[in-house]
Write a structure and sequence with these properties.
Radius of gyration: 13 Å
Low-confidence stretches: none
Helix content: 10-25%
Mean pLDDT: 96
CATH superfamily: RNA polymerase II/Efflux pump adaptor protein, barrel-sandwich hybrid domain
CATH class: Mainly Beta
Shape: globular
Strand order of the largest sheet: 1-2-3-9-8-5
Number of helices: 4
Largest sheet: 6 strands, antiparallel
């Protein structure tokens, strides 16, 4: 069974978001997503200062099985990318919630978090 930390919010497209105390947020893909993809071989990330609205594609995760678009859970501007993934994309398979966050954003509309799924609702989606 997939790990689904209770302190995160989720999308139906299998991204997670963790809002930090300073109003920024980390975004990555769920354990369910990495398991479905198989061995991750490459992560395409956006540029710093790129801004996205909810639902917009912000990157791609490629694996031995498929390539999958990454969708922005909430509105925000990219302030950091996880450079560890450049040389070790397999971190997404090994540690999807801790070491393999993909981007860090400045949240531009905190109220949009209300539209995301909590751990229980996400669990129901992945069954």
């Amino acid at each position: 069974m997939s790990q689904i930390p209770a302190d995160l919010k989720y999308t139906a497209e299998h991204e997670w978001i963790k809002v930090l105390d300073d109003g920024t947020a980390l975004i990555g893909v769920t354990d369910y997503a990495q398991s479905s993809l198989g061995d991750v071989t490459f992560v395409e990330m956006p540029d710093l200062d790129d801004s996205f609205e909810p639902g917009e594609t912000f990157g791609v995760v490629e694996s031995v099985k498929a390539a999958s678009d990454l969708f922005m859970p909430i509105a925000g501007t990219v302030i950091e990318t996880n450079s560890d993934l450049d040389n070790a994309p397999e971190l997404i398979n090994e540690s999807p919630y801790e070491k393999a966050w993909i981007i860090k954003i400045n949240v531009t509309d905190p109220s949009s978090l209300d539209a995301l799924l909590d751990a229980q609702a996400y669990t129901e989606i992945i069954g």
